[in-house]
Write a structure and sequence with these properties.
The chain has 13 helices and 18 strands. With 465 residues, it is of the alpha/beta class. It has a single domain, classed as Alkaline Phosphatase, subunit A (3-Layer(aba) Sandwich), CATH 3.40.720. Helix 7 packs across helix 9 and helix 8 packs antiparallel against helix 9. The longest helix is centred in the last third of the chain and has 25 residues.
Length: 465
């Protein structure tokens, strides 16, 4: 044995067993050696899985779930409050107060108000826990998206989905435990679903990006999982030979997470051929189910496919699925473009909630809806600017109260003033519904125990059922 490059215990095991390929099956069958095997929670969970419906760009809370009568009354009047410093250098672009182009109406037995922007979701309002007092720190999209996904506005940290998979493992070893569908291609990009310093097995698996047409994904999502030119035995032989090469490369290294993660990704891709094609084949669904999600309408088919695929994945044991609807950043043409965006997601979202409930899955599936921030009550040309000081998100199922509104913004919807919920608090609450204590879900890196919420975060216990 070389004294300069001592053979590690791990390398010795690899050599003795003729490489990782020979150990692959045994490792998958052993929870101790399989980092994504199901794990025990800190306490009894309310939810088993998460579907995050992310409205990238920042939908307007005061035009959707947070009505402001005084804003309607004072339309076009000068601001009765001081703008935050972020707007001071460019005041020439901003105008007076702007009322919502949409009317609000109370719905359901709960009587919660929803604007005419979301008529289908309004019919499901008794399932919603509407949090009207969200607060964030990011002023631009890059930092705001990163904080919503990872808890930090400017650093590379593990994402919410990665922490969830790390804490819980996954119930299906033939599919990724964390899937993100059409994630935003810009504004922090892959860092939004990265595992960062967590082992690479916890990274999100992206299905295309926001630049990938859904029609293309619907076809390629299945075709890319099929090995048309190689038998299973031939692929297994290739993987074993690749593992031997990797073993030779790793022999004199104590541990290389990048190499280990690459091996694991090849193994997962191999296993996905057994279950992936069926899971991704939404065409197997009945005509009634596809219509429920809006797949029979060109305006709703894209997000409808995402939502239906999310349901198919979570019912097969995937732990965390994110669907992304892009282009909610209406600095101009708010009335036209917000209406277009809402029309494309309203029926699919309502369809998802109804479908989960009819299958008995809503009770243990946490559905989260929202963007990286809200929008201002004053106009920017004929739109609204970013507003991280007070905005709305909602949750459904998974142990949260139903038909319930929590927190409040001021009379004009600018600042959260009651029961403020910072993104750190949101993350802590989501983990809590999954049976995870955010203060105990840690990973040691560079001599420090890191967690999703850093040194912050308070569970919003008043919203829990």
């Amino acid at each position: 044995m070389s004294t300069k490059f001592p053979l590690s215990r791990r390398a010795l095991l690899r050599d003795a067993a003729c490489g990782f390929g020979s150990l692959g099956l045994a490792s998958l069958l052993s929870a101790a050696d399989n980092p994504t095997a199901p794990k025990s929670t800190h306490f009894a969970p309310r939810a088993k899985r998460v579907i995050f419906l992310f409205m990238s760009g920042g939908p307007s809370h005061i035009d959707s779930f947070d009505p402001k009568p005084k804003l309607d009354r004072d339309h076009l009047k000068p601001l009765p409050f001081k703008m935050e410093q972020q707007f001071q250098p460019t005041l020439a672009y901003f105008g007076n107060l702007m009322k919502s182009p949409w009317s609000f109406k109370n719905h359901g037995q709960s009587g919660l108000p929803v604007s005419s922007l979301f008529p289908e979701v309004a019919q499901c309002v008794d399932e919603l826990c509407v949090v009207r007092s969200m607060v964030a720190d990011g002023l631009d999209h890059g930092g705001a998206l990163l904080q919503m996904h990872t808890g930090t506005v400017n650093l590379t940290r593990p994402s919410l989905g990665s922490w969830t998979l790390y804490g819980l493992g996954t119930e299906n070893q033939n599919l990724p435990g964390f899937v993100t569908i059409r994630p935003h291609a810009g504004h922090s990009g892959a860092r939004n679903w990265s595992s960062a310093f967590l082992p690479g097995q916890y990274q999100g698996t992206p299905i295309g990006t926001s630049r990938t047409p859904v029609a293309e994904l619907r076809k390629e999502a299945i075709e890319n999982l099929l090995a048309r030119n190689r038998t299973t035995a031939e692929q297994r032989y290739e993987l074993d030979m690749l593992a031997k090469i990797d073993q030779r490369h790793a022999r004199q290294r104590e541990f290389d997470d990048r190499l280990e993660s690459r091996i694991q990704s090849f193994e997962l891709a191999f296993r996905m051929q057994a279950e992936g094609p069926e899971a991704f084949d939404v065409e197997r669904e009945s005509a009634a189910t596809k219509s429920l999600y809006g797949l029979d309408n060109a305006k709703t088919a894209d997000f409808g496919w995402q939502c239906l695929l999310a349901r198919r994945l979570v019912e097969r044991g995937v732990r965390f699925v994110q669907c992304t609807a892009d282009d909610w950043d209406q600095h101009t043409e708010l009335a036209r473009l917000h209406a277009k965006n809402a029309n494309s997601v309203d029926k699919p979202i309502a369809g998802l909630l109804r479908d989960l409930k009819s299958r008995g899955m809503l009770d243990d599936t946490l559905v989260v809806w929202g963007g990286e921030f809200g929008r201002t009550p004053f106009m920017e040309r004929d739109g609204r600017d970013h507003n991280p000081y007070g905005f709305t998100m909602w949750m459904a199922g998974g142990g949260v109260k139903r038909g319930f509104a929590y927190g409040a913004t001021d009379d004009y919807g600018y600042h959260a003033v009651e029961n403020r919920v910072h993104i750190h608090d949101l993350h802590a609450t989501i983990l809590h519904t999954l049976g995870l204590d955010h203060t105990k879900l840690t990973y040691r890196y560079n001599g420090r125990d890191f967690r999703l919420t850093d040194v912050h975060g308070v569970v919003a216990k008043d919203i829990l059922a």
